[in-house]
Predict the structure.
Amino acid sequence: MANGTITIAAGATTATLTIASIINDALDEGDETVIGTLSNPSSNITLGSQIAHTYTITDDDDTTKPTLTATGLLDDATNVSIDTNIELTFSEDVDVETGTIIIKKTDDDSTVFTIDLTSDKVTGTGTGIITIDLPEDLLSLTQYYVLIGTTAFDDTGGNSYDGITSKTVFNFTTKDLLTNPTDKKPVVENIKIMTNIARRWVDHNISVIHKRINWLNRNKGNENTSHRNIRVNFNNKTINTVKGIGKLRSALVDLPTVDFCTISSL
C-alpha cells in the first residue's frame, strides 16, 4: 500500500485516511491486514503514544461457481408425470442470465423443447431454486434428457454455472398412460351387468328344458306330449322315441340333453 496523507482539522480529533490502492487484489487471497502508522507530523504537532493501528481486510472474493445440488426429478427417474415441470436447486442463489434449456428425446436425440431463459417459462431468479414450466405435456413412456447452457445462471459474484452438456447427467422417463381397462369402475360394472344377464338367460333356459324333460318322463306312454295337445318334436331320435311311442322305455336316461326342438299342434 502506498503512503498517504491525513489531515486533522484544527480543533478536531479524528480524520479519514483513504487507502489509495491495494497491490494484487485481483488474486484470490485470504483475509489481509493493513497497519496504519502516523509519522512526520506537521510543525507544532506532537504525536501521542499510540501512533499505529492494525486493520483487517476481510476476504470477500467469490470465485466459487454455483453447482446443481438437486433436481425436482431425480436423475434416471421413472414413472414421471407427462405434465411435469423442471426444477433446479443450486448451492447458492443464482440469477437467470441468457441462453436456453433444451429437452431432448434419448432414443433419437431429437429436440422436444428449446426454452429461452428470458421467457416467462423460467422463474426463480435471485433464489436458489429455478423452475422451468414446459410449454406442453411430454409423451408417455418416453425417455428424455436435459441440457443447460453455460451462460444460463450466475451467482451474485458473477460466477457462472457450468451447465449440462451430457445426455447422461439429467435424464428421466415418463410413465405409461395405458391402463388395464378392467381396473376402471364403469368397465367393471358393465362386465358385472353383462355377466348377470348371461347367467339369468342360461338359468332360465335350463330351467325350462329341465321342467319339460321331467314332464316327458312322467308321461312316457302318452301320445299327447303336452296337456295342451301340443306335439313337441325334438331333433333327437332317442328323445322323440321316449316321449311318444314308448318303445325305448327300458333304455330311458334321466334328463337327456336337448339342443333344439320343433313344436306343432296336434
About this structure: Confidence is low (pLDDT under 50) at residues 245-260, 262-266. The two ends are 135 Å apart (CA to CA).
